[in-house]
Design goal:
mainly beta; about 180 residues; disordered N terminus; two-stranded antiparallel sheet; globular
Length: about 180
């Protein structure tokens, strides 16, 4: 898995630094380029993270450990943040997160192995510093809400909730605990 991750990130780095026909492609830059202004909201997650995941058993309501993953976040030229979801089950995915100055929110494009096209997700930071994400399209049934909690020295947490009744009640169905991957 580590070789596959390294190859993926190396290929991306090479691709992003190659000249394009219409000009230069923005290279991957230091994390500090994404640590000012609104970019810092997701910039604080830049790095490589080992993921412990847990899903709620629909029958028993008990939390069950998942297969785990690696989640790597990079800064793209101080204009966006991209991450690479590398789970043990092989359904790799990526998000491209860009700040929308008109709406003062994040526009996120998400795609994963087996998905046709991508999902458009919007995110805003709440008063507690959490980043709350909602699907714009395609519409999800039931509605979904994802929350990134602020990181601390131990790492950070994330949760997925669903609402079977249009925002009246939210039920947590999946959670993640991220710890920095040792170099």
């Amino acid at each position: 898995m580590r070789v596959q991750q390294t190859a993926c990130c190396l290929a991306l780095s090479i691709w992003l630094t190659l000249p394009a026909l219409a000009g230069e492609i923005v290279p991957v830059r230091a994390a500090t380029d994404c640590m000012e202004g609104p970019l810092a909201q997701f910039g604080r997650y830049i790095g490589n993270w080992t993921i412990e995941d847990f899903g709620r058993n629909q029958e028993t309501g008990e939390w069950e450990a998942g297969p785990g993953a690696q989640w790597n976040f990079v800064c793209l030229g101080g204009m966006s943040i991209q991450d690479f979801w590398l789970p043990a089950d092989g359904k790799v995915g990526t998000n491209l997160r860009t700040w929308n100055t008109e709406t003062e929110s994040w526009d996120i494009a998400w795609t994963v192995t087996g998905m046709s096209g991508f999902a458009h997700i919007s995110a805003r930071q709440d008063a507690a510093g959490n980043l709350v994400m909602r699907y714009v399209s395609p519409q999800q049934q039931p509605d979904r809400r994802i929350t990134f909690f602020p990181p601390d020295e131990r790492g950070w947490n994330w949760k997925l909730e669903v609402s079977p009744n249009g925002d009246e009640q939210w039920i947590e169905v999946y959670r993640i605990k991220a710890t920095r991957t040792p170099d």
